[in-house]
Amino acid sequence: MKENRPQKKEKKKKKEFKMPHAFAILTLVIAIMCIVTWIIPAGVYQRMEGPDGRMIVDPDSFAYVENTPVGLGGFLLAIPTALSQSVNIIMFTLLIGSAITVVNQIGILPRGIEVLANTFKDKGVWLLPILMFAIALCDALIGTSELCLLWVPLLLPLILEVGFDSMTAIGTVFVASAVGFTAALTNPFSIAIPQNIVGLPLYSGIGFRAVTFVFFFVVGSAYVMRYAGKIKKDPTKSMTYHEDMEKKAALLAEAEVRESTALSGRQKAAGIFAALVLAYMIYGLLRLGWDMPEMSACCIVIAAGAGLISGFGINKTCDAIVDGCKDMMLGALLIGVATAVSVVMTQGQILDTIVHGLAQVLQSLPAGVAIIGILISVTLLNLFIGSASGKAVAIFPIISPLASLLGITQQSAVLAYQFGDGFTNYIWPTSGMMWGCLGMAGVSYKKWCKFYIPILLIFIIMAVIFLLISQAIQYGPF
After folding, report:
1. What backbone torsions phi and psi does residue 406 show, to the nearest 5 degrees?
2. Which residues contact 135 (CB under 8 A, 6 or more apart)?
3. Most buried in the list 245, 343, 344, 370, measured by CB within 10 Å?
4. From the CB of residue 435, how many other CB atoms can be counted at a distance below 10 Å?
5. DSSP-derived secondary structure for 70-85
């Protein structure tokens, strides 16, 4: 007789889903968009000159045109074309890296981090709302969310040294920027342009926007502080625990070196020089209408000037500048590749068709919920057009007359545009700035989504409430 021996069943280990590389994700999105150009019919709006000289759409001019679907050749050319169109922000990203690397190698940045880390050693969690308020206020005033590319590499080592993780650093910068850019006070891109298109007084309605800013900031900072507090108590609960081990080891080695050295007079002079140029750059953004080229020039001045003042000499300064560009290369390339989605949509002439379709849906909505429809429409369009100003000139001439027909004040329509334009800049896979920052911090897109989606949903619910309030009070002047 045969013995009946229990057979051991081998348990198959479930393969954990591994998030594809960022380039793979973006390439897939570009390929899908190419396929979409074969499905959605091509259509165009005629453009006309707006009140401030910008070309805006004529809302009554939509017409279908002959399809121009994007084939294999267009797909292959999309990324090179996008890189050439994104040269200003790519150069800004690379040169930020150069400036930060030079200042770091001089020893100024590590010394500043050490001072702040010692100051907030026992109450580090309270450092986060201070940093977040500064970032949020900056974006609320000037609307330059691309400065996240500066904040992330500057604040990452500080936040790690205080005892938190890379996700806390990204959350601090992105959540603060989302609050400031979206619930903005004087954002020239998401407020001034649409207000100008409909004839509202420039930056009118700032009181109500200030209230929304406060509420969004309190909720956003509480969310980040809650996560950071959990990490402080138990570092193993960090979403980026393993990724941060190498970074923290490097910071520890730098700290040991700093203990035996002090900044020389030339190093201090270089630090003062860098701070003054940075302050002038912020002034240029606020008062002189500067953009990426001027900001990039300031980064070159900081890198070259600080290096030479500190005594690095020409060769060492140049080497540090090149090293900084290398560190930022991944982020810079991701920014350019993300723009390829917009390139494909433009070549396929489907963007205006999508805008027209959303307008038809809005027109069919009941007056009471139309304001929410505007929010949803702009949020969806943000996937395809990341630029706040570009989206405003494309869609607001259509939203404005629809808002009048549906009994929505123009000021409420502008507010709905703000809310729809801002929060998803930090999660849509077509956001080059987001990919650039994630690349710098070494945080995967999958983990970032896990962190950000809960607060994003909370923000959207809050936005709906504020929009309903604005409609109820007839937020104006009209």
Report:
1. -95, 5
2. 147, 148, 151, 172, 173, 176, 177, 180
3. 344
4. 25
5. --HHHHHHHHHHHHHH
Euclidean distance between CA atoms 137 and 163, whole angstroms: 25
Its pTM stands at: 0.82
One-letter amino acid at 281 equals M
Query: How many angstroms separate the CA atoms of 467 and 190, rounded?
Result: 16
- Name the token pair of 434: 């987001």
Tell me how far apart the terminal alpha carbons of the chain are, to the nearest angstrom.
94
Burial of 163 (0-12, 13-18, 19+ CB in 10 A): middle
Pairing of strands 55-57, 63-64: unpaired
Instruction: Check residue 110 and give left, alpha or beta (phi > 0: left; psi -120 to 50: alpha).
Output: alpha
- Look up residue 77 and give its two tokens: 């050319």
The amino acid occupying position 333 is L
In tens, the pLDDT along 61-96 reads 899 999 999 999 999 999 999 999 888 888 988 998
Distance CA 430, CA 453 (A): 16
Type and span of the H or E element at 180: helix 166-182
Phi, psi of 55, deg, nearest 5: -85, 120
pLDDT tens digit sequence for 159-191: 988 889 999 999 999 999 999 999 999 888 889
Q: Name 57's bridge partners.
A: 47
- In the chain, how long is the greatest CA-to-CA distance? 97
